[in-house]
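My current task is to audit a protein record that another person submitted. Please read both lines and tell me whether the tokens look consistent with the sequence. Do not assume that whoever made the record got everything right. I have pasted the whole thing underneath without changing anything:

===
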Amino acid sequence: MSETANIRHYPGSRLFTAVFFIWLYLPIAVVIWYSFNENRIVSVWTGFSTKWYASALENRALLSAVEVSLTVAVIATICSTLIALAAALVLTRTPGLKFARLSETIVNLPLLLPEIVVAVAVLILFSQLGISDGMVKLAIAHTTFCTPFAFLPIRARLQGMSPDYDEAARDLYATPMMAFRRVTLPLIAPGLFAGMMLAFVMSMDDFITSNMLNSGGATTLPVYIFGLVKQGTTPELNAISTLIILVSLVLATVALLASARAMRRE
């Protein structure tokens, strides 16, 4: 690395980096630390205890919210990834496609609009259609705003893939479906997996849309946590937050390992 490109040669860069990471992760560390507080009053430390984790795992309302969030996230991830994959294939593998830019803008429209606008729009739409089932509303709404998050890495992967692979498969008498299954799909697998992970995380993390569509017992985990916050912060809430952080770290680690493995294969 050249002298001008090495960040370590810039004065104060190490201190700035250290302050940045402390500022970023110190609140998370505080939440994790106080989740082991024996006292119910969060700010008063009286001893180490794991009873709040046991209390959180025995909380039926919490487990129900986790089940709703996971169900909606899995449905939204599958549906949004399939829609994003189809859109990416059409937009990147159809030469001379009319209104390609407009179509791409429509797919990415939920990213351009404030989430509250999308939430209000789907709420009015479901009211006009007479859809009252909370799970159905959540699944459709989450699929809508998760689609562009799945679309971006899939499209990027397809754009970086040469069309020559498909043409070579066709020259070897492979059907379009066989060429996609044997050639295209393995090559875009890292982008596909990244899109699925993004869609899943965005669905699990959503609050605004889920809060507006919350009905019929379909309470997601972020909405449930918000209800606990209004009652006051407790070590049980910290324990729940710590468990969410742990699950997020596991998912991120799996995604990084899978991407690294796919890159080594290439």
